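seq:
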Amino acid sequence: AWLVSHLPELEARSARGVVDPETLGELPELPIPPDLLELVGAPGDVGTVLAELIVGGQLGVPHRAVIVNLIARVPAEAVRGIAASLGAVDSTSAGYGLASVLADLALTRHRMLDELS
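struct:
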């Protein structure tokens, strides 16, 4: 509201109703396959598991969207490990491109969470 009072052109063009401030920090339900959903709260290094699945060919480019959803859902303390594990995938591996992009995403999320806290 404060920003809109200074820059009225930023005001919403359509009425969307009142947003509950308590829900602003919550992500909507994101589609994650059941076998990957197990990793969301799993103890241990989620990044190692993801890297092994990508290098082994069980996860590929068609799975990118659901892996992005997984990275958005894992606890904040797991994100740095995901970035490190995916960033360590061998550049000669067939899954290197996907792993590299996801490592950058995880690192960005880690930095964002650090900045917000």
